Amino acid sequence: MDSKTRYQILFNKINQYNSGEKGITRIAYTNEEQTCTHAFMRMCKVENLDIRMDQCGNVIARREGRMKELPPVVMGSHLDTVYQGGQYDGVVGVTAALEVIKRLNEKSIVTDHPIEIISFACEESSRFGVSTVGSKAMAGLIDKEKYRYLKDRDGITMEKAFSLCALDFNSIDEASRVNEEFKAFFELHVEQGPVLKNNNKKIGIVTGIAAPVRFQLKIIGKASHSGTTPMNMRQDALLGAAEIALELEKAAKRELEYETVATVGVIDIHSGAMNVVPGEVEIKIDIRSTSMESRQRVVNHLFESILAVKRNRQVEIVSEEISSEEPILLSSGLMDTLKNICIEKDLSFQLMQSGAGHDAMNMTKLCRVGLIFVPSEDGLSHHPDEYTELDDILNGIDVLEDVVLHYSKLE
């Protein structure tokens, strides 16, 4: 069986585990996700890998090297999905890693360094509102008491979800591998955006993972009758919010060089009605970049706009910072190796940042990290129609195989 056919069968086997009728629903720590995870463990067993599940539910499958004491070269991603998600997000990285192992076994290649596959638990935030739980646990970044009582839409706590999977939440700290040494970590992932497809590139070599700063604004004007309040006498909270949103867009567009983005993703009108001038509006803002300086310039313009709207529209605005994270810059040395591999394979590529978070960002706490993107049709992700050509995935696997072989040799 050729590699293409073999990989397609593997990919299809994983995606048969699904609790939904539309798209793929395989939510973390549910029966479907756990059944899929154990099926993946059996697939790894067939390839003679040593397999274990840690205290957070991460699967670690190890192929020993010639020298067992050397730090492993690691590949991985995740198998859980969002509600009504697609087939590719996360799954491509896990199945690609197993295909690399299949190729090495087929060629009877013995590496100097051990090689590991990690299928991380609970990468998506869909169930409990927190993401990359498995890789956070491995990197020693879990706030156990904060996470313990987080609830899903059915009121089930994370601690209870663990127990239903025969996992002990109290032992989650034992999933940490901060005292171990790793050679490098690589994650292959679909881009989840339109850049590679629009630029006709086959491979994205990620330079950094953007970090968001998020704000909630409450704009308080004065509700009044839409028919009897003259336009020059209104304190329209919605128009104030709209003005801020447009100014935010302008500020982000000035930062195109740094690929900084800004989004007003939520807008709520308090007691809204067609015949009432909006008196109170809440908006939620997400600003992200790999450049803290660029991000801060957008933030500064946001607050300048807030002052201008308060003054010009005679409204009150209350702002709250919800969260602020630091961007992650990836290993330049690994990027150079990936570039050379793409050149050798005559694969077009581009350097790019990731606007979405990945398990790779937490693994930077443990070792050097390389993140490889393959194109997404129409930039769709977290959607039943997300799609990546099989040949594009195979290009990514070819690159992943070469880079893993490169770093698994004794230097």
TrEMBL record:
Residues annotated as domain Peptidase M20 dimerisation: 214-302
Cofactors: Zn(2+)
InterPro entries cross-referenced by the UniProt entry: Amidase_Cbmase (IPR010158), Bact_exopeptidase_dim_dom (IPR036264), Peptidase_M20 (IPR002933), Peptidase_M20_dimer (IPR011650)
Residues given in the record as Zn(2+) 1 binding sites: 78, 89, 189
Protein's UniProt keywords contain Chaperone: no
Residues that coordinate or bind Zn(2+) 2: 89, 124, 382
One Pfam family linked to the record: M20_dimer
Record's keyword terms, sorted: Hydrolase, Metal-binding, Zinc
Gene Ontology molecular-function annotations: hydrolase activity, acting on carbon-nitrogen (but not peptide) bonds, in linear amidines; metal ion binding
Free-text cofactor note: Binds 2 Zn(2+) ions per subunit.
The UniProt record lists the keyword Zinc: yes
Residues annotated as binding allantoate: 214, 275, 288
NCBIfam families documented for this protein: hydantase, PRK09290.1-5
Family classification: Belongs to the peptidase M20 family.
Protein name per its UniProtKB record: Hydantoinase/carbamoylase family amidase
Provenance organism: Neobacillus massiliamazoniensis
